[in-house]
Specification:
Blueprint lengths: L1 H42 L4 E6 L4 E6 L4 E6 L4 E6 L3 E8 L2 E7 L17 E7 L6 E7 L12 H20 L37
Antiparallel strand pairs: 1-2, 2-3, 3-4, 5-6, 5-7, 7-8
């Protein structure tokens, strides 16, 4: 009788654990879809070169044809949309040391060796925007228990290196000749958590951020 009761209790506990785990997994991947949806709305095009830290709710992506780059934070509820010529550079930091970088008009720093281990790997973007001059996305979080986007630090570094190569090609392109001043930046400040961000890319609008 005691064995039967113990078995029932174990099955009940296992069911609760599976339910909680399933709920957390569903929320995790739902956030992935949500952020992709917001990136698509921000760029008004398919996100390319996307990097994401779902656990922190931060992401970035660009679209070459649209000539836009979007950065999101606060689980996709806030963000900025930039024109490509507002991107000044990007760098990849491993344990707070810059291992690779590419800046507009400067010689690039190439990654000579792929580190096999790291506590923290971060992509950092630099923009021509004095109020929000940079944006970071962690590719390999250092905090225990956070979900990783990549199976290993080496994979994260490899992905970051490919992303920097794409950025290098963007930075080599001539800036748009029609712009006499930086294109407007658009802040994303939806009032409710589940509401779609009010993306607005009116190029005649003054800087709202």
């Amino acid at each position: 009788m005691n064995d039967a009761l113990r078995l029932v209790l174990l099955l009940a506990i296992a069911g609760v654990i599976l339910t909680v785990a399933g709920g957390l997994a569903a929320r995790y991947f739902d956030q992935h879809r949500r952020i992709i949806r917001f990136l698509r709305q921000a760029l008004q095009a398919t996100p390319e070169g996307m990097m994401m830290d779902r656990a922190a709710g931060r992401a970035l992506a660009f679209n070459i044809e649209a000539a836009r780059l979007a950065v999101l934070w606060d689980r996709g509820r806030r963000g900025l949309v930039y024109k490509m010529d507002q991107l000044m550079g990007a760098e990849m930091m491993v344990d707070h040391v810059v291992l690779a970088r590419s800046y507009r008009g400067e010689p690039r720093k190439l990654l000579d060796e792929i580190p096999m281990s790291a506590h923290k790997i971060t992509l950092r973007l630099i923009f021509d925007n004095p109020r929000d001059p940079d944006f970071e996305v962690e590719l390999w979080p250092a905090r225990h228990g956070r979900g990783h986007e990549f199976p290993s630090p080496a994979d994260a570094v490899q992905s970051g290196r490919r992303w920097l190569a794409s950025i290098e090609s963007i930075l080599r392109r001539p800036a748009a000749r029609t712009l006499t001043k930086p294109a407007p930046l658009v802040a994303v400040l939806p009032e409710e958590e589940d509401s779609a961000p009010p993306w607005d890319d009116d190029e005649d609008e003054e800087n709202n951020h």
